[in-house]
Model the fold of this input.
Amino acid sequence: MSGIILFISSIGVMAQSKAVLSSRFFHPINTGDTLNTVKFFKQAKADRIDWLYCEDAGKLKILKDNNIKFSLAMHPEIPDSGEYTTAKYRIKDINGKPYIASWMKTWNMKNPYWGCVNNPDFQQLFYKTAVRYLNLGAYAIFVDDALFNVQLQKERPNEYGCFCNYCLDGFRTYLNAKGPTQIANFDYKAMREQLAKCMSDDKKGLLTSTSAEKNLINQYQDYQFKSVVTFLTNWKVKLKAFKSDVIILANNSNGSWNDIFSVFDGGIAELSEDKLNKPYLDSVFAVVAARHKTQIFSLVSNDIQLQYYLMAYNYINGHDYLLPWDIFVPQRQGSAERFYGKGDEISKLVDVFGTEGPQSKTFSEDKDSWSVTFQGSNSKKYRYVLSKFPKSKLGPSLKNRVTATSLGLDKLIIEKKTNDRAAMSKAKDSAQALQIYQSN
Ligand SMILES: [Zn+2]
Done:
C-alpha cells in the first residue's frame, strides 16, 4: 500500500482518566425498553453516573445496591405543582407571558415554564428540590440550563429578561445602589412601560449606543445577569451548609466559564461539532485548571468516530471522559434525538485506556483515510484502532481539523510500514481493524 505514513508519538505518564456515564434517563424506561443503564455502566467500567434525570427511589436504590455513584439533574422547569409549572413561580416576559425555551416548544411538556431567579417561591422550590435529591443519595447536583433569566435575553435579544414584580423591585434596589435613581416614585407599571418603550425603540433601531434609553436597557440586562449569579451563589451556600461535601455541576455550554457558570464546581458541557479541535479544547482546559474546576464534554453528534476522537483527546490529556450513550443530539432528518454508542466497542476502548498503562499514540494517514491507534507499552500485539476517518465522507471543515497536530501528538516519528498495518488501513471500520490487529 503506497502512500501510507505512520507517526508514533512519545510515551508519557498521564493522570488516570475516568469514564463517566451520562445516562440521562434510567433504562429500562419501561418493559419494552431493551437498554439497561446498570448493564451498560458495568460493561463500560464507568466510574460514576452524571446528569441523570430520576426521582424514583426504587430505581435509585438499584444504583446504590450496585455501588454506583450518581448525580441528579435539575433545571429551571422543575415542577412546583404535581408535574406542572405554574405561572406564580415563573419568568414573565415583557408581555406578561411565561417563558418557554424555543427548543422545548415542540416537546409537549407538562412543565415548560422557566422559573425566575428573583422569585422567592422559586428560590425555595429550587433549594428544597436539591435537598430532596441529596436525600435520595446524589453525591452531586447537576443544573442544566443554568443561565435561567439570561437565556431569555440570549434567545430574544430585544426583550432583556424577566419583568415580574420581584425583578422590577430588585431593579430599584440595583439602581439605588448605583446612586440616586431618576425614577422618584418607582412603581412597577411605570417601570415596565418605560422599559417596554425602550424595547420598542430598540427594535425600530431608534436608539444610539449612548442614549439614556440604551443605558437603561444595558443596566437591566446587567441586573438580570447579576441576579442569576446571586441566586446560584445563595443556593450553593445553603446547599453546602446542608451537606458540606456536595458538588454542584452545570451544563456550561461549550465549556464557557462566565460568572454564572463560575459559581459551579464543575462543568459537563454540551460541545458542538465545530468546537471539536485541540486548540479549542486546550483553551477551555487552561481556564479549568486556573480556576480549579472540573470539565467534561458531551459531544452533540451522532458520529461515533467523532465521539471516539473526543474520548481519545481526553484520555491523552488525563481528563475524565463521557461515554457516548444516551446523549442528546438535536433531531435532524432521519436521526433520533438520543444517541447510543455500541457497548461492546466502547468497553474495549475503555479497557485499553484503563489497563494498558502508558500508551503510545499513533496517527496514520493515507490518501483515503486517517486513523488513530493506541498501543500499550507492555503489549506487543494488542493495538486498538481508535477511529478511522474516511476523507471522502468528511466536509472541508472536518478535514482541516483532523491533523497530527489536532490529535495532540507532540513528537512525531515516521515508522516503516508493515504488511499488517497496510491491512489495517484497508479496514472498513475500527472493529474490523481491531480484528486484523488481534489476528496478527
Ligand atoms: Zn422575574
User: Anything to note?
Assistant: Residues 17-342 form a domain with the TIM Barrel fold (CATH 3.20.20.80). The chain is about 35% helix and 15% strand. The longest strand covers residues 369-376.
